[in-house]
Here is the input.
Amino acid sequence: MLISRVLPETVINLIKNLETKLIGVNSLEEAAQVFAEEFYKTFEESVVLVRLFITIPLGELPSVIQAFANNAAKNAQFSVPLPEDTMILTLFGTCGEEQSWNNRQNSKDHLGIPVTSETFVSAFPMMSALLEQLGFDLGWIRGEAEIVTKCIGSLSGTFFVEDAATTLDNNGRHVIPAQDFVANYGVHSVFGFGGGYLVAGKFVVAIVFCRDSFDQSNAIMFQELANVFKLHTYALVANKNQYFKERPFPLMQPPPREDWEQGEKLQKVGQAVEEENIRLLEEENTKLKEIDEMRVNFLSNAMHELKTPLIPILGGSEFLLRQYAAEMDPEAQKIVEMIHRGSKRLSSLVNNLLDFSKSEINNLQLTCEEVDFTKVLLEIISDLEFLLEPRKCSISTNIPGDIWISIDKLLIEQVVINLISNAVKNSPRGSRIQVNVVESPDFVLTSIIDPGVGLTSEEKAQLFSKFMKFNRDDLHLDIDRQGSGLGLFISKKIVQAHGGDLHAESKGRNRGSTFSFTLPKAKQ
Here is the structure.
């Protein structure tokens, strides 16, 4: 699942899965690792690395992490050793693309980060941006080793960086400093979500590094996960002997009964908060479905609006051909015939779109006939002459003769027109578009090859999504950016309805694209 395409029900399912997996865990480390692994498994297509941190007082941490934190403070020219009540943003869970990232002890740079002063935190762009966006006012950190924790329990929020390679802070520094990591693993958007525990003055935050690009609304959807984690780890975070799988401290005596009763009350409050947040997520899901329905209605209304001007175009061209064909010169007659064919094709397409937009394009009814596919393709290429001329493009073909297949001719014509139009729009002026057809005993493979702008891996992952349009304005390319974002989505549905498939290949930006679709052959 891509995070750029996440739906509320996916988050709800992850919450339910986490609730099951977190029951019975014996340490914060185990709970955090479960969280990281389940999140990564759910969104492996997007996520490069996910890490979960919790603030813990220095004196309650193992000696290895204490040494790490003191060394970090020393390197930043702060006096050491740090006081034992210094809060350390401690790595508890980690999971990612590399096997070595699945063990927190392998972390070289983030085992424990001291939150020792506003000056110290400000020296780390990602850490300062993270805490500020989560609502953790850096002014709360006083002196070199004191942190005001009484307000932490009310904190809850998200951290978001849309483009890890280009986003800078107010001092001109990359918010994500590890630019080698960003480049080597194709990291694009980065986000975090977290919150404070109502007791114990501690804070938890998850940070996720992603390959795909999305906006902050996607990140906000994950905030409830932090609440779920907190709800299931209140008892663990209050007991230093349950931070890690290996206990660095002697076992403590059971807390007094009144503490258990307070814990039960907090758990009930947390449960109520969780139920309310799930209700809000379900409400958001309903709203998204309503928006999707509005889009479908918009498509239906647009098709109705298109029908109005088509009637005189179709009728007028038909009248000219019937009454004045003999008086026209060959070039004029050719143009009127092209207008008539195009408007007839568009009229039929509009009617088809009206039919299957009502059922979300999934129950498309085909009207198939056996046709000479070679003739269909050559006719379309001839009709697209006026599309090619303004951009000085040309089309070369490699199409065998007499290929007979059973198809809905009007719909497949629309697929071919859409693919060739896209190839022309996304290629430099003067380009040559190649149309190839390969015939096998069972299928016909048609490929449209262009030398144009190409596709990134992120674009390929979202290419056939509904209403998907890529923003390439910053690339300053000589391409036509117009379009509704529906063409490829509808084309794929049409081809699949015929029992075939449509896919795209590209080696990357400015290296061209190949769109290929298969159609089953008519049985002889």
Remarks:
- Residues 131 and 137 are 7 Å apart (CA to CA).
- The chain has a mean pLDDT of 78.
- The longest strand covers residues 47-57.
